[in-house]
Amino acid sequence: MKDLQPYIGVSEKLKKSPKFTSITTKIFNEIHDSDISPNDVYILDRPMMDSNTYSYEYDEAFFVLIKNHKIIFFDSGANDEDFNYYVEDALEDLKALSRRFSYVKLIGRGRSWMDQLIKVLPYEKVNEVNILEESSLGQTLSRKANLLISLFTGSINNPDKIDEQVLEKEQITILEAVNNRIMLFDTNQTKFVYDETTDQKITRIQGLAGAGKTELLLHKLRKLYVEDKNCKIAMTCFNKVLAENLSARIPKFFNYMKVDEQIDYSRLFVSSSWGGANDPSSGLYSKICNHYNLKFQRYSRFKPNKEVWKDAIDELKQLDQIEPLFDYILIDESQDFDEEYFELCNMITSKKLYIAGDVLQNIFSINKQLSTTKTDYILNKVYRTDPRTILFSHILGFGLYESKAVRWLSDVEWKMSGYTLSKVNEATSYRLEREFIDRFEENKLGIDFPSIIVEKIENENYNESILAIIDQLISDHAQIKPKDVAIVLTQYNSATREMAKNLGQVIYKKYNWEHVLVPDEKRINDEDEIAITNINNVKGLEFSFVIVVNNQGILEIEDEHLNNEIRKRNALYMSLTRSFITSYLIMSTENTSEAYIDKLVSLAEELNEGEASTIVEKPNNIVSESELYNINVSVRTKSQDEIIRECIDVIKLSPVEKAQLREFISISPAIKAGTTDKDEINRLIKTFLPVL
Known about the structure:
Helix content: 40-55%
Strand content: 15-25%
Number of strands: 20
Mean pLDDT: 88
Radius of gyration: 27 Å
Strand order of the largest sheet: 8-7-9-10-6-11
Low-confidence stretches: 368-373
Structural class: alpha/beta
Number of helices: 28
């Protein structure tokens, strides 16, 4: 039997009504016999967003929202006239919301959709009809109904991202479906944004990559900012590129969410987690140190991050009184942090700390929170990545095709990660399966596409393979734009940086596509730019297609290089799950076992032919928990390029001079050999400085 988890947002009086119980029981029974997810069902008596601004004289009526269905109004009272007034008032508010959020240009005025998308069902008629059949809609009307549902549930979509012409099409392409997807919160997501009931100071959200954690944090940020007029809020994450992406997104997000007042940056602070000593605005830790006059410590490979946070905590404890710096702090990608960082943030926050991260923290660490009460919201439905790609990425990451595996999840972990695990026989074979969910109409439209493709090459001419994939994408998708594609390099040093530059130039000559080279360029790619990036800077981003270049190889997991190989697998998992449609993995037999690549090729082919399901063997040889605990995979290994940039950025030079200095030191034999020794890099910088 399905776990019925619709969202019920009605008064306590209404919940106790026998007629309300009778109607909702019938709806639940029909849902049980359908393929509709209970998580897509809302039973409300008023709009969710800013619900305290809506009131109706009649308190015995409600409406039901079901994805791809008409909005249905029900009466649990006995006053037909008052019920009619309730329906009129609720629809008047719906039309006002449509105008407020500029949906009118997409769905038209109320008179154009009232008869098609709204159904009023008196109580005496409820048992005479099949409610789901009576309210079911075709493809184009479903899109419009879903937009109306998003208004009632507060899951507001940016109308500028939706093409009204595509909205009217009965049959659309996969790229049109992705680029015009209508986001609807499921019931668990809605509870976090609009109906948070926990009184604890810290709220933790865990979800797989692509489960919508960042989007939820943005909606929570908007709610806090609007409703608590004098509050001060910080939003942070570990990765600088993701932080810059958030900084760029928030004004646009506030704009289409119709936040009336202009953003006051004395109330809102958005940055990466660390920052620089001389710029308090560059990072949350930097701002904390500056505000409380604490000793700022730069990142060092020789001192664990947690020790830096502990030092700051100890200094704060020495103060007579800690005046809170913020009322709320929202932390994204929490798997990149230590618990000590959360403790530090909690100390300088007056009201609430929100921590959002991966349900597995990372795919290799043991997550104690899954078996405790610490996690408040589990999000295991992934609305970005195809379930076949997720399954493939976990098998690769967990090392389930290798002689020594990294992980085998507990039953609780498999379930909370969104899997069904069933034993195939009495031995060690298990069927591992993920449910397909309706992400952007691909199931209803009957669109068939490969979700994961492994390209095996016998040399290390990666650019040739990348160009061949782009050729195929352009051939298969006439509407493709550069922004739909990302190229992710798993190793990014001086040599691969040159390879990436050359690749960008070739792409421009061949396709007339501009490119953004991350992390060299800090802007986020525009419509006409393809992103060429590395594994350290793709987190939090998403693309229709991702081409992952495994240019550092994968070795068998053995004790002498355990840490490094675990990091590689974690990075591959994270990179592959950035795609909406297809992820490509380019692997060379020059640096990875051909037999291992062939296994991955076969798995990809199997998944592309059917469902997100395969049979795996439970491994006998697994990395021990004690070994995993000793590997701090949350501390990211910085690339040579990032270390060079950090060393140069502390010197007072113009942007042109910094670029020249980078070019000068790039010709050094030590740099070409791939050194990441910060002292050596600083010595080279001092050598070339007089030449500028």
